[in-house]
Amino acid sequence: MNYTVTPLTVVEFSYRNDVQGEIHGLGLDEDTQLNNAPRVFQFHGTQYWDKARRLGASDWYAGPSGTWKDYRIEVGKSYTGLMRYLVVGNDHDVTTPNATASIKNIKLYNAEDYDKDGIPDWWENQWGTDVAFKDAGLDSDNDGLSNYQEYQNNSDPLDPEGPLTLAGYLDLRPYNSHTGQDVPSAGTITVENKGESMTVVGNRWVRVPYDYNVTPNTVMEFELQGHQQGEIHAVGLDVDTLDANGKQLCQLWGTDVWSNAFQPGDYDGYSHHAPDWKTYRIRVGRLTTGAMHHFFVVNDDDNAPHDASMTIRKVRFYEAPINDAQGYVDLRYWSGYGLPTNDGDVPKSGSVTPANNGRELSIAGNRWLQVLVDYPVTPRTVVEFSYRADAEGETHGLGLDENTELADAARVFRIHGTQASSYTITTPPSQRYRDQGSWRQYHLPVGRTYPAGLMRYLVLANDDDRLSPLASTQFKDIKIFEQEDADSDGMPDAWEIANSLNPNYAGDANADPDQDGLTNYQEYVTGTNPDTPDTDEDSLRDKLSAFGLAAYWKMDITGTSDKKFKMRPIRMPMEPH
After folding, report:
1. Which long-range contacts (CB under 8 A, 24 or more apart) does 261-268 make?
2. Which fold would CATH assign to domain 331-482?
């Protein structure tokens, strides 16, 4: 098509959807590469594509199915230059894709700009600025944004209380008092850094006008520092200005428990981090969904001297699926595990560092972490991941849990560490990590151990209760999936094929071709080779290595020519998992 996009370029069209897929959108592109630059504007779908430009709540296609919606997208606000292709997306990556959509009356043009100030005439007419006067550089409502910036943000140039975002963060300057709760005379509000930061002192409840369509993938991110604890410290989006008609906000801190707010569990309570800065990434879409219109900041302190105080900054909302496009769990959205009983995570004992777009997590200190995954476990569920340790602690492992309680049931598979505990599941010696400083890949058939049902959290353990914990580990490329098992014998098809077994014959599960005392199924569970009687070459048949020496000592021979040996005790499981 060869169209030169300018800052005033607009595309208009009508869209209809009959069956929703994962991603529906339209855009322009200079080449045929899908992932090199965000060119498609997404306005519908069950997933949010990180390479797309997502339209706002008012432009999101909400149906009902089979109805037409007219669109006008100012593409020139997002990119300019020569574009060769019009791109239409109807993505549906399932076994039987049936997503169905229609697009008609597509028109591409440059909007008129009589005064040549970079703001199209239709927008100036809509908002009441002068189409014949170059007023792009003026700040008509004195809210810190020029008229041109208001056009870029699609906010009201004559209303300082419109929903604003600066540098990707919510502008907190246009806050309003929340009538019925806020007591302006009993505190202060200080907004700094051009609206990026707000410090609240006293008994104050305020709200900022902000429209956002919360989906199951919506994340609320912000930084918080508490200075003096009050009764309730909470933040979040709300559909209205009523504070007692349903849970919407997230309480983070406070001496009182507010029954109309979500409580720590999916996210950390701030008391474990006070008085330090804490970065929060809360999957609010797993708590509530729908069109929201207000961002609330609550600093409740009803009793004199009304000195409760906190600072919140860098607030933003965005879409982030639990798994990335390759199916790996995004580990950036972690929080502390076991915090309600104080038996688990000790936030100030060490650090947590995500890397590689959330596919990798480095953990140091006495840390137990959880990542919300909401995965329905079946007997065929498997967790695959890679693990590396640079300094051994007491317990290192991974698992899934239905809640945030550490001690109510053993859910973590211990693959490394100096101690076992009732909190963990012992793995066979063949799955123990012994190569400090090197990566090892794991394949855990967790569905053979867990009860079937929804597991809400992925749990990562780096336990080290020493006064100065030194434990240091890394997890990466974590994937949770259902393994194929055509003959339902408990052994996945891929494993049977790799070990020359028949994936369509259930009888081979009880066979023992290498005559080491373990059936093929037991070899799979313990991670040993069904064709080799002594997988780890320790001069003991696999059955003895895996199950038969629970109360004995196992010798690891590391001798050299001078006949020196090293011995260490290892406790082994009596029964296969």
Report:
1. 261/232, 261/234, 261/236, 262/236, 262/287, 264/339, 264/340, 265/340, 265/404, 266/335, 266/372, 267/335, 268/335, 268/336, 268/339, 268/347
2. Jelly Rolls (2.60.120)
